[in-house]
Every structure is written in C-alpha cells, then in structure tokens.
Amino acid sequence: MSRIFRYNTKRYPEQKISIDNSPRSGLAIKYRVEDLTGALLPGSFLSKILDQLELGEPLSNITLQQLQKKGFIALFRYAKGELWFSEYAVVAHQEQLNRRQAVAAKMTKENAEKKPKEAEQERKLELSYAAVQRRVDARRYKFESDPRSISKFNHSKLREKYNLEEYIEKSDFPKLMDILRRVDSCQRLSEDDLLWLKTDGDDYYTQELREKYHSNEAEFYAKDFRASKNPWSAVNASSNYRKCKKSSAADELLNSLNVDDSRDMHLKSAVLTTHGGARRDLRDWDTALKFGEQAHKLTPKDLRPCTLLGAVNMEIGNYALGESWYEKAVERGASEKFVDADIRRIILLAEKPKQIEMCRHLLESDPERYFWVEKILNQQSRHRH
Q: Would you say 296 and 280 are in contact if contact means Cβ atoms under 8 Å apart?
C-alpha cells in the first residue's frame, strides 16, 4: 500500500488534474477512490477497472491478482461478487480513510525529519491537498444530494434486493420500479399490477418478489382477521403465508381459529385444507392427511382436498394412492397441466433416490402422459456419472 500512497502524493501536484472538471470524477466518487490519481486518469489500471465494473464486465484472474497485490481489497472482493455494492461502499470508505490517515501520518513523519525549507514545502503540499479534498467533498455532497443520484441508487438497491439486476426493457422500467417501491414498502398491489407481473412482466416476477408480495398479502389478511374475526381472512392469510415460506405462521394462526360450530361446510373444508397444507409444509404428514380427509368428507366435490391428499401421498411414497387422489381432483375440475406441475414440484424438491423412485413409478403408470419425467431421470444419470 505504501507504493500506492507514494505514487499519489508525489505525482498529484505534477499531474494538476482538475477533479471538478474531470468526467471520471463521478465514477471515482461512487467507488470511493477519488483520492487515488489513477482513478481520474483515462486508460490507467484503476480507471479501466472502474469502467469494467460499471459495465458489469468480469475481471480477469490476472487483474484480480493485481488488485489484491496492490491492496485494493474492497474492489477485489466486490469484483469477485463477495460484497453487495452497499457493503462495498462501507468497506471502501474505511479503506479510503485508512489511506488518508496513512498519507497524513507519512507527511507528519517526513516533516519532522526534513530541513525547515523542505518541511515548509511539505506544509504547502498538505494545504494544497486539503484544498483539493475540500473541493472533492463538496462535489461528493453535490453528487450524493442530487435527486437523480438518489433515485438511481434507490433503484439499484431495489433491483438488487429482488434479484432484478439483469436487463429491463426501457418501456417496462417505470412500471416495474413503481411496483417494487410499493411492494417493498408493504403496500398491496392492484389486480392489474398482479396480472401484468403474471403475463407481460413475467420475466420480472422473481421468487424474491413473489415471496414479498405474498408476505404483504398475508399480513393484510392477518390484520383484518384480528380486527374482524372473519375466518375467511385467516384462511387467506394462511394461504399467503405458505407461499412466502412462513407455514409456521399459518399453522399458528389457524390453531387460533375455531369453526367447529359453523354450519358453513365450505368454510370448514377450506380451513382444514389450508391447515393441512401448512402441516404438510412442516412435514407433519399424519396431520396433513387427517385434515385433508376431513375436508374431503365435508366437501366431496371440491378439488382442493383431493390435490392436498394427492400431494401428501406422493411425498410419503404412496404413489398409486397419490395418483388416485390427483385423478379425483381432475374429475372435480383440476387440469392435468396443474396436476403435472404439482407433481413436478414434488419430484424436484425430493431427495435424489426418492426422485428416481417416483419418476420410475410414473413412467410405469402412464409413460405417455408422464413422458417429461425421462428428462429428470436422464439428468440424475448424468450427475451420477
């Protein structure tokens, strides 16, 4: 690191770079390296690296080694993907402080050792550096206070949070960012927004965004249940809790609900089916089966208890019985496409030996319908070899 500091302090006055007017200063400020002359020199080692990072281009192993060797640890870790940009900014800021402290300490030591004339020259250099730093700080404040910079930074954080850092169509950007801001602030989406995400904006409906949407919906219905005691709100809340991996919250909420005295068979069945799904998520197979069977007796024409019983039986290895329940669900209105998608999810979430066992059973049962499981078997075979 000492070589870097010596380069900066010795060459800085000779270069006479105007930070205020340099088109690279904004980039240098963003990456917290504006105190390094190389960051402001087009074509320099550091300048090229900043350009590559800004464009999202990977750095070569040699370049990464050079970064590490030269002591740019924050840049090295960020380029390797070990840090989010918000984390990088904290680490890089501390590195910058360390550099400046090292420069100040070096100047102090050299001033004490030099002759009066040399000491005076160093004092002037330090004052000059301080003046430049004041201009840099003023520019940074202006840059970071600019609403456009703040907006761009907030957009970047939201895209990172919801795994949307890939290319976004220019025409989709305003709508998508509006949706992200509202979802992130726990606001509910309109039916039109949700429809857009499921159709035109399907590429942007990431798992992270789905889970946050369902978390917001769950909290909305749970709050409504606490206020109104409407059991359907508890069912809706629990259904959404399951979709954002909070099945324990769904189980707890439904345990507090008592509909034994209700004459609404559809409500009782919905409570039992949803609760059975939550217990299924928590791997309490026996309770899930019991709730599913009770729900089916209450509403024998409803497909939902059938799909629950089909899924649980498939998961515990009762494949023929699971298929039978799925067939009942199709007879009651479920599409084969929906059933196949449900079975596919079960297979992919199962352990490898269970996946193979389930795929073989399905192929023996109906090779024409379940032709798609051959691809999963082939993948397993390649992995084993």
A: no
The secondary structure of 185-218 as a DSSP string is TTPPPPHHHHHHHHTTTGGG--HHHHHHHHHHHH
Residues 128/134/136/139 CA torsion (nearest 10 deg): -140
260: exposed, middle or buried (Cβ count in 10 Å: 0-12, 13-18, 19+): exposed
Annotate 306-318 with b (16+ C-beta within 10 A) or e (fewer).
Answer: bbbbbbbbbbbeb
Alpha-carbon gap, residue 227 to 214, rounded angstroms: 20
DSSP for residue 131 = H
Radius of gyration of the chain (CA): 31
Query: If pLDDT is split at 50, 70 and 90, which confidence band does 3 have?
Result: very low
Q: What is the DSSP string of 45-112?
A: HHHHHHHHHHHTPPPPHHHHHHHHHTT-HHHHHHHTTSS-HHHHHHHHHHHHHHHHHHHHHHHHHHHH
To the question of pTM greater than 0.85 for the whole model, the response is: no
- Report pLDDT digits (tens) over 65-79: 888 888 888 888 988
Percent of the chain with pLDDT over 70: 86
Average pLDDT estimate for 194-213 = 93
Q: Dump pLDDT digits (tens) for 318-372.
A: 999 999 999 999 999 999 999 999 999 999 988 888 989 999 999 999 899 889 8
- Least Cα distance to 92 among 133, 149, 33 occurs for 33
**Per-position b or e across 133-171, b if 16+ CB within 10 A of its CB:** eeebeebbeeeeeeeeeeeeeebeebbebbebeeebeee
Taking residues 36-61, report their average pLDDT. Answer: 86
> What is the rounded distance in angstroms from the CA atom of residue 128 to the CA atom of residue 37?
15
Domains defined for the chain, CATH in brackets: 2-151 (no CATH), 259-385 (1.25.40.10)
Q: 305: burial class by Cβ within 10 Å (0-12, 13-18, 19+)?
A: buried
CA angle 59, 60, 61 (to 5 degrees): 120
Residue 151 has pLDDT above 80, yes or no: no
